[in-house]
From TrEMBL:
GO terms for cellular component: plasma membrane. GO terms for biological process: transmembrane transport. PROSITE patterns: ABC_TM1. InterPro entries: MetI-like, MetI-like_sf. The keyword Zinc does not apply. The lineage of its organism: Bacteria, Pseudomonadati, Pseudomonadota, Betaproteobacteria, Burkholderiales. This is Binding-protein-dependent transport systems inner membrane component.
């Protein structure tokens, strides 16, 4: 009997079949394959934008910070950075940025946690993220006007508190033009920005980790202390550094809200470049260079912590 007649279910001849060897996929060199030249052309608008609005202005500032009005090399601008008035401006900006970054990090993290893991109705999360995307970009003159109309001396909240709760907000020492007024205004876009940044990190907390902790007899405190927080802290701290840099470089909101009543470095910089009395353009370049160093360090820390957080989640 031939082998072909004995093959079949239980015939034992299936083991004699030679297995097929997988062949490598043929190379595709046709028009469907993108050329490296076209790939580089696709990213050229980004490099052009970075060159015109980031690299060249930064280089111009660095050169101008070491020149006088006649274009000669000088270190006088850098020495002027250590004057008492300039150091006070940097210190006030640092305090406002630190306070708004801390408040934004705390309240933004709590809001994001409530939306992601708080077992709230399903419509809460998309609504919160949509509002955060809009509010995080709402700044400048419109934001300053909104807070003046809300918490100014004749603002809506100020009048309602005095009329129905017998609370004179301004008799307590509060002023929308003060340190705490500017910090509160910054929180309007700092908290939503924190929500947008930390939400993906909270999504990265796997449900299996909590279930494994519960199965091993761990408490909620132990889960957050030994599992969740070690995973989240690089993202939260990095986001706080980004919030610090975001508020440190803000100028339109502060200038529209406080004018010259609060001596922060961005308003001092504006006065040196565009003002009539304190006009010293090269000193303004030096002030801007100092701000670039501060915000650059903050953004560098954010990038490092973000890469560490991504490695931890993997």
């Amino acid at each position: 009997m031939s082998a072909s007649s004995e093959a079949g279910p239980g015939g034992g001849q299936a083991d004699l079949m030679v297995p097929s060897v997988p062949q490598p996929a043929p190379k595709v060199d046709g028009p469907g394959r993108a050329s490296p030249i076209w790939t580089w052309i696709g990213v050229m608008p980004f490099f052009l934008f970075a060159l015109l609005f980031l690299i060249l202005p930064t280089g111009f500032l660095m050169v101008g910070a070491f020149q006088d009005a006649q274009g000669h090399f000088t270190l006088a601008n850098m020495r002027d950075l250590f004057q008492e008035n300039t150091l006070d401006a940097y210190w006030i900006s640092f305090k406002v940025s630190a306070a708004s970054a801390f408040g934004g990090a705390v309240f933004g993290s709590l809001l994001a946690w409530a939306a992601v893991h708080g077992k709230l109705p399903g419509w809460i999360r998309p609504t919160l993220l949509t509002f955060s995307g809009v509010a995080s970009n709402f700044a400048g003159v419109p934001l300053a006007f909104a807070f003046i109309c809300t918490l100014g001396r004749v603002g809506l909240v100020t009048v309602l508190l005095k009329k129905y709760a017998d609370i004179n907000l301004y008799s307590t020492g509060f002023s929308i033009l003060s340190f705490w007024g500017l910090t509160l205004t910054y929180l309007y876009f700092q908290i939503p920005l924190m929500v947008l940044i930390v939400t993906p990190a909270l999504d990265g907390l796997k449900r299996e980790w909590r279930e494994a902790c519960d199965c091993l007899g761990g408490t909620a405190y132990q889960y957050w202390r030994y599992v969740a927080l070690p995973v989240l802290w690089p993202s939260v701290l990095g986001a706080a550094l980004l919030l610090f840099a975001n508020s440190f470089g803000a100028v339109a909101t502060a200038y529209a809200l406080t004018g010259s009543s609060l001596n922060i470095v961005t308003i001092l910089l504006y006065a040196q470049i565009r003002g009539d009395v304190l006009h010293n353009q090269n000193l303004g370049y030096a002030l801007a260079l100092g701000m670039i160093l501060v915000t650059g360090l903050s953004n560098g820390g954010y990038i490092w912590l973000r890469s560490r957080a991504e490695r931890g989640r993997r």
